[in-house]
Write a structure and sequence with these properties.
33% helix, alpha+beta, homotetramer, four-stranded mixed beta sheet
């Protein structure tokens, strides 16, 4: 470290900050596993999900592989076999253990994985002391690793919920209050946005963003309207009761195929018994609350609901422009991971200066946009280039974050993505429509 | 018909034109079946393909169901059971015979299907005499029926080729010259196009277009370049020989999965024996000609080739804008169905005023654009609304038509679409890249 | 040919007989195809079935491969590519065209296959003139070829029926009288057979038998009873109405899995509409006749019915011993292929000297015996050894022949076999039980 | 309990014995789990296998459901939901949790399952004190429950081995000596057995046997020979090196299909690296020892090896008759579970009075016999009747027990059974052949 180039105070400050951020974010992951037994952390309930233990190990592997192996001289791997075992999909790093078999790895034990985490955390802290504020590559990879870790924190909650839902005992992950807010959401209102040329995506040199949010570029929007809040479970129930799952007209062709072959009759985790509906939550099975936003929808279901309602889903450009226009004013207490709600909450009353609610947090919102590269997109060099770009096919973009997203992880330009049939993510639905001609 | 409202001459003229178009296009379908036996017309070689007999019957069903049942008073169905038997995917019309089992229907015989065609053709001609030029709905549905028939003409050739390719005897559909042009294609040149706001899609009241080409709307383009011709088989072979099918780096994640699970090592219909490559054509198996455009690529392969070459696929907006800019000048003799070539041909020398070659005909060109509705898209009313909109998911747009597309069927705004793994359509690849900054 | 060893008259007589048998049996196959179009002969309705055209070609291939190539000097193959194309499963002969794709071979045409038959028939007749009565191997292979051809005749009818049943038009193969006999079958009676040591299987030097019927060997039987006739459709309907297809207790575990995953609710070809049952026959769809023997049962269904009825299926040793005991007396006009009935008929009145009816013809009868080699079984040498032995796994034996079996093809020792879930063969059910202790 | 009917001494003695047997056998199951973590006990590595935790719970469920619910008045279920959760396949008891998802049940925890075991064990001991020696049904069900528990002990070892084998870390279940015996097995010798009528199966009133071993009945045997020991890994390697897995001639048709679709090239757990073979054992991956009996063979492989060797597999009647003839003399220290070897051992030198070795223990031996009911077989009443009978289809019988079979669990009449493709059981191969004519 060159003390001249990096004046003492600033560099040290950055190191302290980096160490603190690293420690906090890493601890947040293990905190998520705290209410779970080693057996809970072992199970993989479907090929798309992973065991909690695997998430804890893989995020550690990420720091070991992309930071310690490159930046920490003399670093000794905790266990050289983990390089293969906990590689998710990085072909450039080497072979991978088959994804659908992650739940078969009873060894290493959860205890060993926690020791692995400690070993790597110690080493990363050493590396931070050596490199932060004097090596841009290091800082960028560290930041990427932390955002990667935060993504897996949300995945842990998704995967735990799915795993518990397969158990006829309906176990709870946490004891949650029935819901935080007692009021009913207001009737749906439409907010109008002008058309025109807008900047979209994350600008260069404006802080961290994933490569898929870049480059910032101009898009052309036509005037449109967004609903001021998410669709509720009560509203979605009306779609079901109107025969939504029995009427092919509302569905994309692939969606209707999925409804028929999978026998879908309601969103994931909904169950009907004697004309009463219940919903499996992170707090076990509960009566359906009509005021709560509907979640665990596939793209097919979100799209079908919108078509039934005579409107449509927003594009991601529309969504981002609307979110950006709100972001300048104070959005009061969004329901992100920090609230501890662990569930979506009924929409608050719109604020006079911030009339769209639930844009940040509560539930990811399906957009009508297929996940595609922005004009001029270039994936990063080497293995890091596999992070996002290669998944840009047959997936749709979701925006806005959910109750499981940490506040430091979400941005208006953030692009989440899932295949149109996926339902285990915390995904809901905000309606959009073309703006009528100006009066 | 009200002779006052429809002055004699004009109405009669329109009727004669409509009758002639109808007769010609209907005959073109049966002419495609002429070289085939009843057995050839029976076979369905995969669930995505249909027997030729089914194509001949379904296109007839389309006129019977959407025109004769509605417009021809007293019309008696040729066989009421055909309503179910030859319905492709119109849920609004009623149930459908399972698509993968179309090849099991030995009855009705080809002879009966041809009689069905005659029966319906006669009735449609009567209906034309009664309605053309005095009923807009009739005229619109007749035109739609004819374009529908032309789509199936190309499907017939695709499906016949696939069916014959499954036969170890390598039968030929037609005896074709080795290739029409003797010259080598020129080295690839790049044509530059400006960015800016452009009109895209088919304008209202500008003649026939499918609903998915509408509405016309403005898009914003960034400066870009297109290759002046299609990628050749020789160029694609270099990709194979460079390990293209063994290197995951070039592929989308889903594409690489497909390469591995399907064991792809070359485009569909290519075969390697003792270091020599041959290609199955509508004229049987032939030695690979390096100068011919490469065809029967999936989106995955087109995309991987482009990535290997350091460039990308064009978006459909870029492609359409480029095609529109060329369409004003005379494009000499595009290789469409009317040439009778029945295969893609080596690129001609670029014309000074029309420097992009092969934009019309030869092969459909994969674009980077997921198939999605245009802003403001509204599907047609009733069953006709199922024509296009419900397929807008997990498919990619192809542009430009092929050697199997009739000249009266193609437009610069025409949007063809296939899933990214489909390979049996006549699909090739034109490269694109971002334009460098202006000098 | 050594005229001394084979005295003129006898040898000539044998040649004439062989030629006549060959010609008759070969013509019987083409006669079966006579009511069918080339399109009918093209279709393969499931992987287990084959197109009629393929049957006609494969039986010809058998004579060409095993007789002409070996015995007829200078024989020129009709088309050398047929060696691969029409090989069913003889690994020793070489590669095979994939079985599930037989329906894709529109070429060679039916016309060509018939010419192939003529070409080979002519050559076989020449070979008969040269070899019959002077070469035991030749005579044995010729006889095997003829029995092979007869097996495929029954397969043709099975496969045609299945193919026609897939067609919603319910086409008929032949116009058949509703049924030949007007009387009701008598109530079921039990015939008792003693236990003891019995000879089972086909003795050496006792005329033709397949290798799986040999060697003859002693078995030990315990006293048992057989029902005097087959179970009728009316009796089987009672099982259905008693909840047979909803009660796991009656079923083997694999059988119940099959009922659930396949959604079975009745035998193949049965259909219920508004409380009336119909059955698809070779004469189209017809009302269920309660007096006709139930057919198109899987082993699972035959076994479940027997368990529901409190009895069991016979073993093949029991069946053969009972049949042999009856065979000495005159069984009046069994319903074999020669009757032309093309369907099972109600049981005739038992004859005082021949009290088991329907043992020969009407329907194959499932036995409780897994298909296994007899003690001392040796498959034939070379490719012929693949005829039977390699299929002795996960199949069950059926006995007795059906209305589709030629009279010259069936013997009491004849062992037919199908997997327990197969239903498209002409298979019914005769009940058995242990004999009570003697009074 | 009526002290008059059950004279003090005898009844008490029986109770003490029953309690001791119960306690010992139940403890043996938990002892098997002792070297495993809760995570190890959670994993289900394939649908055919079950988690160790599930085995521990299901065997407990068996006592609770079939004994406590019926015999122990006032018994309160440990958890009423376990009735569904740990029912394996008893339709008469009610619904079952889907078998392939057993590994998803992280709750109840291993700790809770062990508490469940204690709860039930205590109650069963109370029930023994009340019922043993005065209620035949009770005694019979208790004995069945203990044999059921012993079956699951062997399954635990099979399933643990499979689970560990999926882990690239190659973990060991136990540290085992390389092998107990240092000597080479002797060359294979043939022991001759006479034909004739023999008693087969377990006689009534001769102690415990499963229903499938009954009734005892006469069978007719033809003279035959058995190899004096199991086939070794070295001998099997010769089959591999002779192209055994590349030559269809040796295989049943279904077997060859399996070889091709599964890509089999050696027995399960064998791996070849650089021309050296290793085998995964309960002690981790080890070099192949040519003298050890070959294990983890499917029926297909055992049958193919025998065909390659020019001989065959024994029938179960042959095997049982041979075993019975040996059983009268002292078989020195068979390698059953009590030896603690946890692996098959090289064959000992034959004893002059007991010339077949390895008949008891080491490895289960595939027979040529399809698993079928004995003449006169009647399954037990109620749910217990589902124990064996409904699985008598598409399975083959294995005899003799393995190193994982407790000594008190095995009999010469014992019939184990697996589908012909199954390989994870401890199954090997003894050759048989027809005896030559007497000199």
């Amino acid at each position: 470290m060159n003390a001249l180039q990096h004046p003492h105070g600033l560099a040290l400050d950055k190191q302290i900050q980096a160490t603190r951020a690293f420690t906090n974010i890493r601890q947040a992951s293990t905190a998520l596993a705290a209410p779970l037994s080693a057996e809970d952390c072992q199970v993989q309930s479907m090929p798309d999900a992973s065991p909690v233990k695997w998430h804890l190990a893989h995020t550690t592997w990420f720091f070991e592989t992309f930071i310690l192996e490159r930046f920490l001289q003399g670093y000794r791997a905790f266990d050289p076999q983990f390089r293969l075992l906990f590689n998710s999909y990085y072909n450039s790093v080497g072979e991978q253990y088959p994804r659908p078999q992650r739940g078969l790895l009873s060894r290493p034990s959860l205890e060993t994985v926690l020791a692995y985490r400690n070993h790597v955390d110690e080493a990363v802290r050493t590396a931070i002391a050596q490199h932060t504020a004097c090596d841009e590559d290091f800082d960028a990879l560290l930041e990427l690793g932390l955002h990667h870790e935060q993504q897996h924190q949300e995945l842990i909650l998704m995967d735990v919920k799915h795993m518990l839902s397969c158990n006829p005992l309906h176990p709870a992950y946490a004891a949650l209050p029935l819901r935080a807010a007692a009021h009913q959401p207001e009737p749906l209102q439409w907010q109008t946005f002008d058309g025109g040329r807008y900047q979209m995506g994350h600008p260069a040199h404006a802080g961290f963003a994933f490569d898929n949010e870049r480059p910032a570029h101009e898009v052309l929007l036509h005037p449109y309207q967004l609903a001021h809040r998410l669709v509720t479970q009560g509203e979605y129930l009306a779609f079901i009761e109107a025969g939504g799952y029995r009427t092919p007209d509302y569905w994309l062709s692939l969606g209707w195929d999925t409804v028929c072959t999978q026998g879908w009759r309601a969103p994931l985790y909904w169950q009907q018994t004697d004309d009463a509906w219940s919903v499996f939550t992170l707090s076990g099975r509960r009566d359906l609350d009509p005021d709560t936003p509907v979640s665990h929808l596939s793209y097919f279901e979100a799209d079908a609901y919108a078509r039934w309602a005579g409107v449509r889903l927003p594009t991601e450009a529309e969504w981002e422009q609307a979110a950006a226009s709100q972001d300048n004013v104070l959005q009061p207490s969004p329901n992100l991971f920090e609230t501890g709600a662990l569930q979506p909450l009924p929409a608050p009353r719109p604020d006079p200066t911030c009339r769209l609610t639930q844009m940040k947090g509560d539930l990811w919102e399906w957009t009508a946009s297929a996940y595609a590269p922005y004009p001029g997109f270039r994936p990063g060099p080497g293995a890091i280039g596999e992070y996002n770009g290669k998944f840009m096919c047959n997936q749709y973009v979701l925006r806005g974050g959910s109750f499981a997203t940490p506040a430091s992880h979400i941005r208006p330009s953030y692009r989440n993505f899932f295949p149109p049939q996926a339902r285990w993510q915390f995904a809901g639905l905000r309606l959009a429509r073309d703006a009528s001609a100006p009066n």
